[in-house]
Amino acid sequence: MKIIGERIDKWNEQLVQHKEHMLNYMIVLRISPLPPNWVVNLGSPHLGVPLTSFFWGTFLGVMPPSFIHVQAGAALDRLSSSDELELLTPINVICLLAVAIVALVPVFIRRRFTNQSQSISI
Fold first, then answer.
1. What is the phi/psi pair of residue 48, to 5°?
2. Are 33 and 1 in contact (CB under 8 A)?
3. Helical (H) or strand (E) element with 108
4. Which of 59-77 are b and which e, b meaning 16 or more Cβ less than 10 Å from the residue's Cβ?
């Protein structure tokens, strides 16, 4: 139990540093297959993730994988009438990558402006 407590403290320190980007990180966590969603669900309240970031990050981050799952279901339906099965189509992959990149753009912009403002003030 001591090891888990130390890990939670370490993760909490990292979250405090990225508190202003929490929505973007939640979206990316929901899109990515690792960590599983149940880990994010259980860990978020213990790590102090704000409820609004958790809600909107989950809402916006679950849509792209759900789109892929619906496409997979439609492809499986077509499987009975066709010999082709295309789950990882370029359109599906591009959609997932585009949402992940769009979710991280504000993080990179803020980081760039923060670095510029710090170099100007020095």
1. 80, 30
2. no
3. helix 90-121
4. ebbeebbeebeebeeebee
Which tokens hold the place of 112?
Answer: 């760039």
From 53, 68, 69, 57, select the one nearest 28 (Cα to Cα). Answer: 57
The pair of structure tokens assigned to 111 is 């980081």
Tallying the residues shown for the chain, one arrives at 122
Tokens of 7: 């890990």
Q: Which of 51, 50, 61 shows the shortest CA–CA distance to 26? A: 61
Q: Please indicate, yes or no, whether the overall pTM of this predicted structure exceeds 0.70.
A: no
Residue located via tokens 């969603």: 37
Q: Is the peptide bond before 35 cis (omega within 30 degrees of 0)?
A: yes
pLDDT tens digits for 69-106? 888 888 777 766 656 666 677 887 888 888 888 888 88
